From TrEMBL:
Protein name, as recorded: FecR domain-containing protein
UniProt keywords, alphabetically: Membrane, Transmembrane, Transmembrane helix
UniProt-listed InterPro entries: FecR, FecR_N, Ferrdict_sens_TM
Transmembrane region(s): 83-103
Domain FecR N-terminal: 18-57
Organism: Uliginosibacterium sediminicola
Domain of life: Bacteria
Keyword Transmembrane attributed: yes
Segments forming domain FecR protein: 112-204
Length: 316
């Protein structure tokens, strides 16, 4: 009998190898890598199934006893080789297929995006409500056995609904997995970290660096990334200010403030480079731009030149 190429004989293993590679690359926190991974993830249901298995396997390893992890994850292996070595061991024992049996076909994901200056409210099939912040992208995948919301970019607020069918609800974000426990919460993803703030009830957050799910109660927030899981702390009023159309700044450099105000309002605003390091504090309504900029100019002694489609901030 002639030899059969591995990719043809065991396509599932080739998909798992690709998923493991992406898992490592996503740790680089590179926007181009994030976009490329999303293209791969959406290209085929086999890719999505492989990704879910690799994430589940990683979660199992995180929860394993320290001695077990030490045995499996030898220090001489790099991250991808460690993960694939474990995959090989699991496949050799037949345990992965037993732990994660083949299920129904992957549920199609409905992707929804917002632009600069746009916030959008969605009614979910279970009666919940999802609010998208500006420059956000989410994917909705409600199937017969589970409910999933994919957070690719931006900010969301979720008021979770009660599912009559009892399907579990999970949010898959860049930096971890979130399980709502009958709740309202916000999640913002910036260049480095995710900030989750709970307004009602509680949520559980799982990530690559968390040996167990972290519970975040109402009135608490959690700052985390793929590389580092923080601890619950007191929530801040500014955490969900964007849902009310307010931009809160605390000693923020003017250049960053102008960039955020422009994105939140959808209007073009620029400032003289000499003003970049001025510090801004306060709460500014993004839907009352004239008033907010007038207040800013008064506080920082600036001059505003308004032209069609653009505001210019200049020294007096």
């Amino acid at each position: 009998m002639p030899d059969v190429p591995v990719n043809e004989a065991r396509p599932e293993q080739s998909h798992l190898a690709a998923a493991a590679e992406w898992l490592v690359r996503l740790g680089e926190q590179d926007a181009a890598v994030q976009a490329a991974w999303r293209v791969w993830y959406e290209a085929a249901p086999e890719h999505r199934a492989a990704w879910q298995k690799v994430e589940k396997l990683q979660s199992l390893l995180a929860a394993a006893p320290a001695q077990t992890r030490s045995t499996l994850l030898k220090s001489g292996h790099n991250t991808r080789r460690r993960l694939m070595a474990v995959c090989g061991l699991v496949f050799a024992a037949g345990a992965l297929c037993m732990a994660f049996p083949a299920g129904p076909a992957a549920v199609p994901i409905e992707w929804i995006s917002t632009a600069a200056g746009e916030r959008r409210s969605l009614q979910l099939p279970d009666g919940g409500t999802l609010l998208l912040g500006v420059n956000s992208r989410v994917g909705i995948a409600y199937g017969p056995h589970a409910r999933e919301i994919h957070i690719a970019a931006g900010a969301i607020r979720l008021d979770s609904g009660h599912d009559a069918q009892g399907r579990p609800l999970r949010l898959l974000a860049r930096d971890g997995s979130i399980r709502p426990l009958g709740t309202r919460f916000t999640l913002e993803q910036d260049e480095r970290f995710s900030v989750l703030s709970v307004q009602e009830h509680a949520v559980e957050v799982s990530g690559p660096q968390a040996p167990a799910a972290i519970r975040v109660e109402a009135g608490q927030r959690l700052v985390f990334s793929r590389a580092e899981m923080g601890r619950p702390e007191a929530a801040q009023w500014s955490d969900d200010a964007w849902t009310r159309g307010v931009l809160v700044a605390l000693n923020m450099p003017l250049a960053r403030f102008v960039s955020q105000l422009s994105a939140q309002s959808g209007q073009r605003i620029d400032s003289d480079p000499r003003l970049a390091d001025l510090r801004v504090s306060g709460a500014y309504r993004v839907d009352a731009l004239d008033s907010s900029l007038a207040t800013l100019a008064e506080l920082l002694a600036l001059r505003i030149d308004k032209q069609p489609g653009v505001w210019h901030l200049k020294p007096r």
